Amino acid sequence: MLAEKGTVFRKTRQHDQRQIDRAVRAQQVCERDHPRLADEVYERQAR
To answer: Residues 11-34, buried b or exposed e (16+ Cβ, 10 A)?
Structure first.
């Protein structure tokens, strides 16, 4: 009788944390480079 091999999934938590850290740094750079808030509002009437 042959042993059945199951699918092996690697842990991705460490990889996911690196992506989260990268996204947080990117957001911080963006907020630093664009400090002002939006000063115009665009609205469109629904038909």
So the answer is: eeeeeeeeeeeeeeeeeeeeeeee
Instruction: Fill in the DSSP letter of residue 37.
Output: P
Assigned token pair, 14: 């460490």
Instruction: For residue range 1-47, list pLDDT tens digits in order.
Output: 555 667 776 666 667 888 999 999 999 998 889 877 767 888 888 87
d(CA 23, CA 30): 10
- Compute the distance between CA of residue 46 and CA of residue 42 in angstroms, rounded to an integer: 13
pTM of the model: 0.47
**Residue 33 φ/ψ, nearest 5 degrees:** -80, -20
